[in-house]
Amino acid sequence: MEVILKQDVKNLGYKDDVVNVRPGFGRNFLIPKGMAITADVTAKKIHAENVKQRAHKEIKIKAEAEKNAAKLSGMIVKVGAKTGDNGKIFGSITSVQLTDAIKKLGFEIDRRNITIENEDTVKTIGTYKAKVRLHKEVVAAFDFEVISE
42-53: per-residue pLDDT in tens? Predict the structure, then answer.
């Protein structure tokens, strides 16, 4: 079954992609949740026109994302956490804390677009790596440092 995605779906595709999915997944999950529409002839024509009109805007959005990626790649984001005597964090650092720290630097990023490398090991003070997807074709890698509050 062919569907046109109305929003980004993890491990499936990005907004406005035409993808093949199993009929049950499309009918029972994607379409009722408003994530996709069936890709019939009329919908494909409308989709093609919309993509054509949006192409110019996409170039500007991608250029802005690349500029932000270049800025973010050179930064070390500092994240504060409560720690014990031996430098161990109470809990762990998640994408929510990283999003808040990045917002303080002036970047507006959705927490779902941040991926922490070796997320299970961020339990002590130190420097770690993370990636953020700013655009479907632009991914920026940056370092973040966990410091004691």
Answer: 999 999 888 888
The model's pTM is 0.66
Euclidean distance between CA atoms 70 and 74, whole angstroms: 7
Domain count, the chain: 2
Domain span holding position 37: 2-62
Distant-in-sequence, close-in-space partners of 86: CB < 8 Å, separation ≥ 6: none
The tokens describing 27, both together, are 């009918």
Domain end among 62, 89, 110? 62
Q: State mean pLDDT over 72-99.
A: 84
Structure tokens given for 97: 């804390």
User: How distant is the alpha carbon of residue 43 from its chain centre?
Assistant: 27
In sequence order, what are the residues at sequence separation of 6 or more whose Cβ sits closer than 8 angstroms to the Cβ of residue 50? 16
